[in-house]
């Protein structure tokens, strides 16, 4: 699926070296790609469950960050948070890091790996993988680094 060099390059672009690189691979792997690997007799987990966890972790961190940046009403926090975590914002972040999901052959042929939804879902899954591997403070620091420039705008 990915060489050790490719995995390391992604870690460097993320700014985090995984203790368990399997978590990163799972976060990058879409369901169709995992199914293809399982059909070949290989064990392979997909990102689906990580997307849910990553979404929740991201919401908590962004809410806290917005409060720290001076957003003081529920409405202002919600409005800005929704803007930050929308599909276009998350997919743009992965594009800037030059990270794409691992997709199935059929998905690749129709360009799923370049679509905003797939990239946004992969971003959420990566957030979950880092959270599981390094804990809350690590992912919080990374999210602050990634999103602070967007909040300042």
TrEMBL record:
CDD domains linked to this entry: RIBOc
Domain RNase III: 7-135
GO biological process, one term: RNA processing
One Pfam family it belongs to: Ribonucleas_3_3
InterPro entries: RNase_III_dom, RNase_III_sf
Domain of life: Bacteria
Gene Ontology molecular function, alphabetical: ribonuclease III activity
UniProt protein name: DsRNA-specific ribonuclease
Organism this protein belongs to: Adonisia turfae CCMR0082
């Amino acid at each position: 699926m990915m060489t050790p060099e490719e995995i390391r390059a992604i870690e460097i672009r993320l700014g985090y070296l995984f203790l368990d690189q399997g978590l990163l691979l799972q976060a990058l792997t879409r369901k169709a790609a995992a199914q293809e690997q399982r059909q070949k007799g290989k064990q392979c987990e997909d990102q689906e469950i990580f997307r849910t966890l990553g979404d929740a972790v991201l919401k908590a961190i962004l809410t806290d960050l917005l409060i720290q940046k001076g957003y003081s009403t529920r409405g202002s926090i919600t409005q800005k948070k929704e803007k930050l975590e929308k599909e276009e914002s998350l997919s743009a972040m992965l594009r800037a890091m030059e990270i794409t999901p691992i997709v199935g052959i059929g998905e690749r042929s129709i360009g799923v790996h370049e679509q905003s939804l797939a990239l946004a879902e992969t971003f959420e899954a990566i957030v979950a993988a880092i959270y599981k591997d390094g804990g809350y403070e690590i992912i919080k620091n990374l999210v602050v680094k990634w999103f602070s420039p967007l909040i300042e705008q």
